[in-house]
Amino acid sequence: MVSFTLMLCWAVVCPAQMIRNSNQSVMAKIDADGTVRNSNNSVIARISGNGDIRDSNSHLLGRIGSSGDVRNSNNTYLGKIESNGTVRNSNNSLLGKVEGDGTVRDSNNHVIGYARGVPMRYAAVYFFFHFM
Questions:
Q1: Strand pairing class (52-54; 43-47)
Q2: Which of 37, 75, 82, 97 lies 20 to 30 Å from 89, alpha-carbon distance?
Q3: Contact, 112 vs 127, CB < 8 A?
Q4: Is the Cβ–Cβ distance between 115 and 14 less than 8 Å?
Q5: pLDDT digit of tens for each residue in the chain (132 aa)?
Q6: How many other CB atoms sit within 10 Å of the CB of residue 35?
Q7: Phi/psi class of residue 128: alpha, beta or left (left: φ > 0; alpha: ψ in -120 to 50)?
């Protein structure tokens, strides 16, 4: 809970951070308030302080729980983001990992993107759970 609170405080004081693919091309950015914008600067989602993930029309898409559980809008368990950045699906199979420096790797350890300065949970949701 403490790390999640620190992550939220960091998100509030940081300027927008870029999410990039493995070629370093910008895919999206996350503003300090949790607003997610695509490469055309259109709002595609918002992640609130309580973990709700909403689309640009404020419809609930899913939720990140304080323990890292990820659920869809029907409250169906989709997977988990572990405190070390490991991401697993609902069957506990490895989806990938968000490393401390923001490098995002798939289950085969290949780099699939970068999210430097982006809170780990936000990056994991973006790359592995595709709410946006």
A1: antiparallel
A2: 37
A3: yes
A4: no
A5: 434 333 444 444 456 799 999 999 999 999 988 999 998 999 999 999 899 999 999 999 999 999 999 999 999 999 999 999 999 999 999 999 999 999 999 999 999 999 999 999 999 999 999 876
A6: 15
A7: alpha
Q: Are 14 and 117 contacting, i.e. CB atoms less than 8 angstroms apart?
A: yes
Helices and strands in the chain: count of H runs, count of E runs: 2, 12
Which residue matches tokens 């989709």? 78
Distance in angstroms (rounded) separating the CA atoms of residues 19 and 56: 18
Encoding tokens for residue 50?
A: 């309580």
- Helix (H) or strand (E) segment spanning residue 86: strand 86-89
Rounded to two decimals, what is the model's pTM?
A: 0.83
